[in-house]
Structures are given as C-alpha cells and as structure tokens.
Design goal:
Layout: H1 12-22, H2 30-46, H3 55-89, H4 112-125, H5 130-140, E1 149-152, E2 160-163, E3 166-168, E4 173-176, E5 181-183, E6 188-194, E7 201-207, E8 212-214, H6 215-226, H7 232-235, H8 247-254, H9 260-273
C-alpha cells in the first residue's frame, strides 16, 4: 500500500485526530514530535483565537497535547539514555582530555560546561544506578527548556495548569512549557518572562477570562500586547535569534517579504525555532 502524502488538515479538530494517529508510530523521535507540534502550533496561529474555539476543538487540542507531550518525553528520555550510556559504561575509567562525541565538524570541542555536565553525571552514577542519574539529568535538562515561559500571577488567582502528567492549581509563580495549557478564570493581568538565564525579558499581559490557552496561544497573546508593530528594521535586529515572541510576526512578515536576504534569514530562523 502506498503512503498517503496528502497535506495535513488545518482544522484543529481534524488535525488533532491526524496527530493522534501519527503517534502510534514505532519509530518516534524528538524531531518527529517537534514536527507534529509545529503543525498544531501553526494551526492555532492561523485559526481562530483561543477565546473563539468551540468546545470540541479545545477538547481535541487538550487531548492531543497531552498525548504528544507524553510521547515526546519518552522519546527524549530514550535518546538521552542512549547518548549517556557510553559514559555510564565507562564511569570508572579515567576522564578523557575531551569527549569526541561533543566535537563539532570543525573539530572544536564543546564549551567547558558540557564536559563538566558529563563529569558530574559520571560521578553521580558511581554512587547510584543509571535510572536515578538519568532522572536527575532530565530534571535539569527537560525537553524544550529554552521555550519555557515563567508567569507571576497575583496571589489567590484562579488559574489551572494542565500538563501531560495532570492538572493542578499553580502557585503565584510557575511556568508554562510547550505541551502545557493554562485555564483562566476571571480576566486578569500577569507578569511573564522568557529567554535564556541572564538574558531574560519580561512584560505584563492581560489574560482573557474563562479561556484555555495553549503555550502557542500565550506566545501569540504576548506578542500582540508587548511587541511593537513589525517592520523590516525590527526583524533584522540580532536579538531576533533569541526571541520566541517574534514567532507570529516572522510568519506574517514572510508572506509579503521580497528581500531575498531577509527572507532567507527569516526562513532559517523559523526552521531552527520549530526544532526546539
């Protein structure tokens, strides 16, 4: 039987069903999870705002993000375990001058922090089993950590956070990851921050009332409230490379951009963004 090469549907309800079906693969990977997440995210950006989605669309999105997040976590764990297994097997061997697996094609070794991470892992695994060391490693390096958005809400706010492992009422300070959802109560303002440690940016946004927001919905909402109107000068600034909030503007700008150099830059930025 030939493979079905027809494009994925853009309707969230139908797309969620297609993604659920795709998750039955036996050849999953983090890259595959990122591609599925990209399709869901783009459908959210191109479709109706979260406040206008019908209940069946929101339910389908909620369920597929839960399934995708669980699968992605498992695939990520398997990939990390495979890469760290060699260090577990040689945990009692002398430390090499550098780790060849961490060298680039230009034969430049990774920064010292990368080698130190492996040193710490090898030291810890001498004291406990591989599973315990792997759990500790993944807790400090979860999937898509660089996309995490931190939220500071007023004390006593009625918010619910839904993750692939369950739902709960977060405290005043919490974070939202790419497979999470935020369920709001009354309309309120919250402070958010994003970006690498030491280079974080922040701002205050207003959340809609009684709404279920996926991570991509929060990005779109924040971009509309915190970023100035997109223009070519803004898109050419170097800090674009580290700005998750630029995603909606970059996609919109690409539709009409005629400058080949800037168009190429934005396309590469998008390709890099969608692969965590």
């Amino acid at each position: 039987m030939s493979a079905d090469l027809s494009p994925l549907p853009r309707d969230i309800f139908k797309l969620s069903a297609a993604v659920q079906d795709a998750l039955n693969t036996r050849a999953g990977s983090v890259t595959f999870a990122a591609l599925l997440w990209r399709n869901l995210s783009e459908a959210c950006l191109d479709g109706k705002p979260a406040v206008e989605r019908r209940e069946r669309e929101q339910k389908a999105l909620r369920e597929v993000l839960t399934s995708l997040g669980s699968k992605a976590a498992g695939w990520h764990r398997a990939a990390v375990q495979e890469r760290l297994a060699v260090h577990a097997a040689h945990r009692n061997a002398p430390r090499p001058r550098f780790y060849r697996a961490m060298m680039s094609k230009a034969l430049r070794p990774f920064p010292n922090w990368a080698a130190l991470e492996i040193d710490v892992f090898r030291e810890r695994i001498r004291r406990q089993d591989l599973k315990g060391s792997l759990d500790d490693f993944l807790e400090r390096h979860p999937l898509a950590l660089g996309y995490r958005i931190f939220i500071l809400a007023p004390v006593g706010t009625k918010l619910t956070k839904a993750t692939p492992t369950g739902r709960f009422s977060p405290g005043a300070v919490f974070h939202l990851d790419v497979f999470d959802l935020l369920l709001t109560g009354p309309k309120l303002s919250v402070a958010i921050s994003w970006g690498e440690a030491g280079k974080q940016k922040s701002g205050t946004i207003e959340l809609p009332a009684n709404c279920e927001l996926a991570w991509i919905d929060l990005v779109s909402l924040a971009a509309g409230q915190l970023l100035p109107e997109s223009n070519k000068a803004g898109l050419q600034r170097n800090h674009l490379e580290a700005e998750i909030l630029w995603l909606p503007r970059v996609r919109k700008h690409l539709e009409s951009e005629q400058d080949p150099a800037l168009r190429r830059k934005l396309m590469w930025w998008l390709a890099d963004f969608w692969t965590f």
